């Protein structure tokens, strides 16, 4: 007998998800919404809703024939499908729908019609889900969701260190056997600082067995030269987070850091890399550090680093008005920084837009603002095994590789659905105004 997930009680199912698979996500709004729906449902019908009662909320005002086909298919699914695939599909869809609900209903209905039509299409033809796309060219690993800094644009470091938010060595070992040998580049990256792991060298030893090029995104503040030596020994590329070359500004942004301690580490890396492009700075542009961009070029030149990548802080559109207001000033500084970097033979990657304002193509790099290939080329694996889209920390989840093997997830329906929308007018809300530089 099939253990149909549609016959589960909605609240109990949500609590299971909330307390296990989705511990790292804030689902308080979703819980409040579910509680209201459940309370209203119980007042009206005298019982708690089952999953099949709630699925209608995710179908919107679809054509009845289409809705029937979807429900007939979902009734065939069991709890294993829900745990491995369905819970992520419904979570992704609910987040995506929220964006359209804040714009206009027509867009939402059009999107839902396309989403569910493609869901049926992919599900009805299993071969479409087994296209065997090549494994991703780039794998990004979040070894930890802990950080030693409480930066103003992130804030992860405001939380206490939690060893439960470190990737287990068992999971990393599994990835090193199934995935890492088949990729070209491994980047240690994410919402956390890899080098604060007490046994970081042990992680590094597992990763270094792969033939892939190793990169690390780091705040470079840990006072442990053995870590930097081990990374250098592995010919690691350093992407160093730094948002100011002025001590006071730097420390006001990267709260908890010492600029002079950071600069000592930076000098050490610059003196020991085999070529300048092995060390590059990632600079996050914010309203408080607009005037620092030229100083960053000078800092890179002083330290013997070969590149600077300018990212833009991720904020809601309403919070980014400063970019529009100061666009002329920023573009002028970009031009000066470009000219200075050219004179130093430093690679300076600048975004091709500031919100909706384009930046001179002669000095800017193409971003994924209009077109993106990342869902076919890279994957971001979080500390708990969640597979997500890309380096820009898109919250869309493909599934979890602790419960289903990587190859199945990489070719699975959650991936296929995302890919089918990424370069359309219905692209995921997080992808809009993307600053990922190609």
Topology:
Blueprint: H1 10-19, H2 28-45, H3 51-55, H4 64-74, H5 79-101, H6 105-124, E1 138-141, H7 169-178, E2 185-188, H8 200-207, E3 213-218, H9 225-233, E4 237-241, H10 247-253, H11 259-272, E5 279-285, H12 293-303, E6 307-312, H13 321-325, H14 327-344, E7 347-349, E8 353-354, E9 357-358, H15 374-377, E10 378-381, E11 386-388, E12 397-400, H16 406-410, H17 413-421
Helix pairs in contact: 4-6, 6-17, 7-8, 12-14
Structural commentary:
Helices cover 43% and strands 11% of the residues. Helix 7 packs parallel to helix 8. It is globular, with a radius of gyration of 23 Å. The model has no long low-confidence stretch (mean pLDDT 91). It has 17 helices and twelve strands.
Features:
single chain; about 450 residues; alpha/beta; ten-stranded mixed beta sheet; two-stranded antiparallel ribbon; 12 strands; about 10% strand
- Distance between the amino and carboxyl termini: 50 Å
User: What class would the helix/strand composition place it in?
Assistant: alpha/beta
Task: List the helices and strands in order.
Answer: HHHHHHEHEHEHEHHEHEHHEEEHEEEHH
Instruction: Please mark out the parts with pLDDT under 50 across 5 or more consecutive residues, or reply none.
Output: none
Arithmetic mean pLDDT:
91
Strand content: 5-15%
Categorize the overall geometry: globular
Report the count of strand segments: 12
């Amino acid at each position: 007998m099939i253990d149909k997930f549609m016959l589960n009680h909605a609240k109990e199912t949500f609590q299971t998800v909330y307390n296990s698979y989705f511990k790292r996500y804030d689902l308080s709004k979703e819980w409040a919404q579910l509680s209201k729906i459940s309370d209203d449902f119980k007042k009206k019908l005298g019982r708690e809703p089952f999953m099949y009662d709630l699925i209608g909320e995710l179908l919107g005002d679809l054509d009845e024939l289409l809705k029937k086909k979807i429900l007939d298919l979902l009734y065939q699914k069991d709890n294993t499908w829900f745990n491995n695939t369905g819970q992520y599909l419904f979570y992704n869809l609910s987040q995506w729908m929220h964006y359209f609900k804040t714009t206009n209903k027509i867009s939402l209905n059009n999107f839902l019609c396309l989403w569910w039509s493609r869901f049926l299409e992919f599900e009805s033809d299993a071969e479409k889900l087994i296209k065997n796309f090549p494994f991703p060219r780039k794998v990004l690993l979040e070894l930890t969701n802990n950080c030693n800094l409480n930066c103003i644009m992130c804030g992860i470091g405001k939380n206490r260190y939690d060893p439960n938010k470190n990737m287990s060595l068992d999971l990393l070992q599994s990835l090193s056997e199934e995935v890492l040998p088949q990729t070209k580049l491994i980047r240690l990256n994410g919402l956390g600082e890899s080098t604060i792991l007490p046994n970081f060298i042990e992680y590094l030893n597992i990763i270094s067995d792969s033939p892939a090029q190793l990169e690390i995104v780091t705040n470079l503040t840990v006072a442990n030269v053995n870590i930097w030596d081990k990374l250098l020994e592995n010919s690691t590329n350093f992407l160093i987070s730094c948002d100011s070359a002025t001590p006071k500004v730097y420390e006001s942004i990267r709260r908890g850091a010492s600029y002079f301690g950071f600069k000592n580490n930076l000098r050490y890396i610059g003196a020991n890399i085999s070529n300048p492009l092995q060390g590059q700075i990632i600079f996050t542009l914010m309203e408080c550090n607009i005037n620092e961009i030229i100083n960053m070029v000078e800092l890179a030149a002083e330290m013997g680093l070969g590149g600077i990548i300018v990212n833009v802080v991720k904020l809601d559109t309403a919070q980014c008005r400063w970019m529009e207001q100061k666009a002329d000033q920023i573009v002028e500084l970009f031009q000066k920084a470009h000219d200075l970097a050219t004179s130093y033979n430093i690679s300076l990657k600048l975004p091709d837009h500031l919100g909706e304002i384009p930046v001179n193509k002669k000095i800017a790099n193409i971003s994924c603002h209009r077109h993106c290939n990342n869902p076919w080329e890279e994957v971001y694996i979080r500390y708990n095994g969640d597979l997500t889209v890309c380096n820009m920390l898109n919250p869309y989840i493909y599934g979890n590789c602790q419960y289903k093997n990587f190859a199945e997830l990489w070719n699975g329906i959650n991936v296929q659905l995302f890919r089918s929308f990424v370069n359309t007018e219905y692209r995921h809300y997080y992808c809009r105004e993307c600053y990922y530089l190609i």
